[in-house]
C-alpha cells in the first residue's frame, strides 16, 4: 500500500515538474519571441510612442540626407516595410540596399507620409553586407519578370515575388479552410505510384540511379519473370491522385488532396509546368455532375473571397503593379456572377462559326485548344464557363458514360486568359461498363483493383482536379505560370 502511495507521489512530482517545465518553456519562448524576434508585421501594429523595438530584415530602400538617413526594412512578413530613421552618427556605408540589418530603437510618431509610426534607431548592426554594384536587383526599379526568373535563388528578394509567396500561402490556407469547413478529409495521396491515371503517357519513371540498390530477384521472382526493378513493377511520379482518392471515397464520402503533381509535358507555354500543385476532391453519393460543379464553383469563389479578406494588401499590390488593367474587375465578375454551363456540343457550334480566326479549326470530337477556351470565356463576357459532356474519346477511361454513349459526364472549367482551370468527371461506377472500358484501354490487368472498388458497395461518385498555379495566374493576373511557383520546372528547365 505504502509503496503504491509512494509511487503515486513520485509520479505526481514528475508530472508537476513536467508541467512546470512546459509552462516555463512556453512562457520563456513567448517572452523571447516578443522581445527579440518580433516580425515587421508585428512591429507595424505598434501604435505606442517610446516602445522599445528590435527589428530585423533586409534594406529595401535607402535615402541618405545630410542630417539623417531613412531606410525601409522588410523581413517578408508583410508587404509594408518599417521605416527606420538613422541619425548620422549611426550611419555607415555598409548599410546598403539589400544588406541585412538588426536595428534597436524606439517607436516614434512619424511626421512623414506613408506610416503612422517609425523606428528611431539607437543601435544598428549589419548582419550581411550586399554590394549594390553586384546585386542583380536595383532599388525601386521595376524589373522585368523574365530577368528576375534568371535569378531563382534571389527572386524572393523582389517585392513582387515575396508578395506572391504570401499570396500563395494564403491561397493554400483558403483551400484547406474550404474543404475542412465542408467535411472533406485531407488525404496524403502518394507521389510514387504504379498507375498513369490520365492515360496520357506523360509520366516520369522512377528507378534508383545506382543499379546496385535494386534488390536481387529471389528464385520465385526469377521463375515468375518478375522484372528486376526497385519496386518490381514500373513506378512513376504521380500525374494525379484521383484513383487513390477514389479508394478513400469508398469509405470516406468526402476527401481531397493537395500535392505536387508531375507531367512530362512538352508544351513550354505560359500555362504548363512539369511539376505543379493540384487540388483534387472526390465525393461519393453524388446525384449528378451538377454536384461536382457546385463544389468547384463554391471552392473558387470561397478562395477569392478569403484572399480578399486575409491578404488584400498583397492582392492590391498585384492589381496595381503586375496584373493587366482590368484584372480586379475580371476576378470580381467571377465572384459575383453564376458560372455558365454549356455542353461541349453547343460550345463547338459556337466555335465553328469562328473557325476562320482560329489557328486550329475545331470539329465535333476534337479537344478544345487554348484559343478555343479563351474565346468561349470572352464570348461569355469574361464569366467563367463550365463546358460539360465531352466526347468519350477525348476523356480518360474512368469518366462515366452518358446515356447517348457518345459523350461522358465530364467538365472543364474555363476562366479568363488562363483557359482550363479545373477538369473533372463523374466516375464510371457500374461494374460491367467499367470492365468493358478497361478492356478497351488494355488496362484491366493493371487496374483490377480499381474495378474491384465497383464490386463492394459501389456508389455514384465524382470529383475534379484544380491546377493551383493556374488558379494563382487567374486571380493575380500573372502572365506566365513560372512566376507563380518558387522553383518552376518545365521541359528544359529544372534549375536549383
Ligand atoms: O484535367 P486534368 O488532367 O485532370 C486530372 O488529372 C483529373 N484526374 C483530376 C481529377 O478529376 N481528380 O488536370 C486537372 C487540372 C487542369 O485543369 C489544370 O488546371 C491543371 O490540373 N494542370 C496543369 N497545371 C499546370 N501544368 C500542367 N502541365 C498541368 N496539367 C494539368
Ligand atoms: Mg484536363
User: What share of the residues does DSSP label as strand, in percent?
Assistant: 15-25%
In the predicted model, the low-confidence regions spanning at least 5 consecutive residues are 1-5, 7-33
H/I helix tally: 14
Distinct ligands, ions and cofactors found in the model = 4-amino-1,4-dioxobutan-2-aminium adenosine-5'-monophosphate, magnesium ion
Quaternary class? single chain
Please give the number of β-strands: 15
Fourth-level CATH superfamily of the largest domain: Bira Bifunctional Protein, Domain 2
Text of the CATH class of the largest domain: Alpha Beta
Portion of residues in helices?
Answer: 25-40%
Condensed summary:
Helix content is 33%, strand content 20%.
Give a structural overview.
The chain is α+β, with helices and mostly antiparallel strands. It has 2 domains: 37-128, Nucleic acid-binding proteins (OB fold (Dihydrolipoamide Acetyltransferase, E2P), Beta Barrel); 159-203 and 239-483, Bira Bifunctional Protein, Domain 2 (BirA Bifunctional Protein, domain 2). 33% of the residues lie in helices and 20% in strands. The protein contains 14 helices and 15 strands. The strands form 3 sheets. The protein has an 8-stranded mixed β-sheet, with helices on both faces. A 5-stranded mixed barrel has the order 1-2-3-5-4. It has a two-stranded antiparallel sheet with strand order 7-8. Helix 4 (159-181) packs across helix 7 (289-310) and helix 4 packs across helix 8. The chain is globular, with a radius of gyration of 28 Å. The structure holds 4-amino-1,4-dioxobutan-2-aminium adenosine-5'-monophosphate and magnesium ion (MG). Residues 197-198, 240, 242, 263, 265, 272-273, 276, 278, 280, 420-424, 463-465, 467, 469-470 line the site of 4-amino-1,4-dioxobutan-2-aminium adenosine-5'-monophosphate (4AD).
Amino acid at each position: 500500500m505504502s509503496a503504491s502511495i509512494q509511487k503515486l507521489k513520485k509520479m505526481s512530482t514528475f508530472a508537476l515538474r513536467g508541467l512546470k517545465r512546459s509552462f516555463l518553456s512556453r512562457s520563456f519562448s513567448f517572452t523571447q519571441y516578443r522581445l527579440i524576434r518580433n516580425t515587421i508585421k508585428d512591429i507595424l501594429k505598434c501604435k505606442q510612442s517610446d516602445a522599445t523595438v528590435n527589428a530585423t530584415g533586409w534594406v529595401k530602400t535607402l535615402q541618405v540626407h545630410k542630417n539623417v538617413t531613412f531606410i525601409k526594412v522588410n523581413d517578408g512578413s508583410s508587404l509594408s516595410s518599417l521605416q527606420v530613421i538613422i541619425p548620422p552618427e549611426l550611419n555607415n556605408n555598409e548599410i546598403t540596399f539589400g544588406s541585412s540589418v538588426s536595428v534597436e530603437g524606439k517607436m516614434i510618431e512619424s511626421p512623414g507620409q506613408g506610416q503612422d509610426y517609425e523606428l528611431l534607431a539607437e543601435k544598428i548592426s549589419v548582419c550581411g553586407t550586399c554590394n549594390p554594384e553586384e546585386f542583380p536587383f536595383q532599388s525601386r526599379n521595376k524589373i522585368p519578370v523574365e530577368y528576375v526568373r534568371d535569378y531563382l535563388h534571389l527572386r524572393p528578394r523582389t517585392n513582387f515575388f515575396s508578395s506572391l509567396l504570401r499570396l500563395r500561402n494564403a491561397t493554400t490556407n483558403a483551400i484547406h479552410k474550404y474543404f475542412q469547413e465542408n467535411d472533406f478529409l485531407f488525404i496524403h495521396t502518394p507521389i510514387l505510384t504504379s498507375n498513369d491515371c490520365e492515360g496520357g503517357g506523360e509520366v516520369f519513371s522512377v528507378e534508383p540511379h545506382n543499379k546496385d540498390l535494386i534488390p536481387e530477384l529471389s528464385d520465385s521472382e526469377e521463375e515468375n519473370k518478375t522484372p528486376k526493378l526497385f519496386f518490381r513493377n514500373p513506378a512513376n511520379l504521380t500525374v494525379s491522385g484521383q484513383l487513390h482518392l477514389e479508394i478513400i471515397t469508398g469509405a470516406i464520402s468526402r476527401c481531397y488532396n493537395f500535392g505536387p503533381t508531375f507531367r512530362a509535358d512538352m508544351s513550354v507555354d505560359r500555362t504548363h509546368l512539369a511539376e505543379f500543385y493540384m487540388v483534387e476532391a472526390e465525393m461519393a453519393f453524388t446525384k449528378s455532375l451538377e454536384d461536382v460543379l457546385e463544389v468547384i464553383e463554391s471552392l473558387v469563389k470561397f478562395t477569392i473571397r478569403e484572399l480578399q479578406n486575409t491578404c488584400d494588401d498583397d492582392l492590391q499590390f498585384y492589381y496595381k503593379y503586375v496584373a493587366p488593367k482590368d484584372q480586379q474587375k475580371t476576378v470580381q465578375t467571377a465572384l459575383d456572377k453564376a458560372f455558365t454551363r454549356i455542353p461541349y456540343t453547343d460550345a463547338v457550334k459556337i466555335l465553328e462559326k469562328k473557325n476562320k480566326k482560329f489557328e486550329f479549326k475545331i470539329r465535333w470530337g476534337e479537344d478544345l485548344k487554348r484559343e478555343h477556351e479563351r474565346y468561349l470565356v470572352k464570348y461569355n463576357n469574361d464569366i467563367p464557363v463550365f463546358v460539360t459532356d465531352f466526347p468519350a474519346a477525348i476523356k480518360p477511361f474512368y469518366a462515366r458514360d452518358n446515356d447517348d454513349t457518345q459523350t461522358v459526364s465530364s467538365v472543364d472549367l474555363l476562366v479568363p486568359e488562363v483557359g482550363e482551370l479545373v477538369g473533372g468527371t463523374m466516375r464510371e461506377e457500374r461494374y460491367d461498363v467499367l470492365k468493358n472500358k478497361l478492356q478497351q484501354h488494355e488496362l484491366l490487368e493493371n487496374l483490377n483493383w480499381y474495378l474491384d472498388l465497383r464490386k463492394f458497395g459501389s456508389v455514384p461518385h465524382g470529383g475534379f482536379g484544380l491546377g493551383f498555379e493556374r488558379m494563382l495566374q487567374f486571380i493575380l493576373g500573372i502572365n506566365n505560370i513560372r512566376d507563380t511557383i518558387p522553383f518552376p520546372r518545365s521541359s528544359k528547365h529544372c534549375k536549383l
